[in-house]
Amino acid sequence: MNRVRDKVALVTGAGSAVGRACALRLAAEGAAVFATDSAEAAARATAEQIGKSNGRAQHAAQQVADATGWTATLDAVKRAYGRLDIVVNAAQVYLKKSIRDTTLADVRAIEDTNFVGCWLAAKHALPMMREGGARGSFVVVSSVLGQVGLADAAAYGAIAGAIRIFIQSVALECGAKNDGIRANAVLAGPEPLHGLSSPAGPLALPQALQGSAETIAETVVYLASDESRFVTASAIVIDDGYSAA
Predict the structure, then answer these.
(1) What's the distance, Cα to Cα, between the start and end of the chain in Å?
(2) Which of 29, 39, 103, 188 could form a disulfide with 192 if both were Cys (CB 3.0 to 4.6 A apart)?
């Protein structure tokens, strides 16, 4: 308990299975959470669940690929909590479709949410994190498909690969500025990804995979806490050995 006590965490995609698990675990470990999701009702449900457990949470609707929306979200975080210590980018869309059947609209939907959303988070949130003066943590929940291929997931995997390189570059840039901010990624196996959204709408997370979402959330808490103070530019794989097979 209290591994991130008195820290402020922004969690995107907090209405989905993986994002919600991250928000709940951070709150349980003492963080004040600002939960966002493209569906405001889903973000509200996560914040209310945190409140019922005596945690601190606010919520807002957010389209992560909208730069103006990032300004509004961070202004709301500042009004609510005064600073920002942790950013968890859990907003993702997942697509399993052959190259032939994948449309340009599909690719752009994945790119906008998964990569552009991550880039905008870094662009807009890192300056606010630096203002706080404390050690910060920037975390992206992505996919192991960014380092191993999977049939019928070419577009999704290619963009996940870009995110893996991006997070290393963010870490190096923060390190060069000596600003105390670390940047890391959590690469989930393909099964938990079914708990994400698709361009066509939310996907249900099978009950058997709930444990996977919790494991991802525990890893996010580790990366957000001072326990990982020497961990940066890393990609922690959580795939039950999938990528080694």
Answers:
(1) 35
(2) 188
97: left (phi over 0), alpha (psi -120 to 50) or beta: beta
In this structure, is residue 206 part of a structural domain? yes
Q: Coil, helix or strand for 113?
A: helix
Separation between Cα atoms, residue 183 and residue 233, nearest integer Å = 6
Question: How many independent structural domains does the chain possess?
Answer: 1
Which CATH number fits the domain that encloses residue 204?
A: 3.40.50.720
In contact, 172 and 165? CB cutoff 8 Å: no
User: Angle of helix 67-81 relative to helix 117-132, nearest 10 degrees?
Assistant: 30
Unique residue bearing structure tokens 């003492």 = 30
Is residue 2 a part of any domain in this protein? no
Does 3 fall in a domain?
A: no
Query: CB-based contacts of 39: which residues, under 8 Å, 6+ apart?
Result: 15, 61, 202
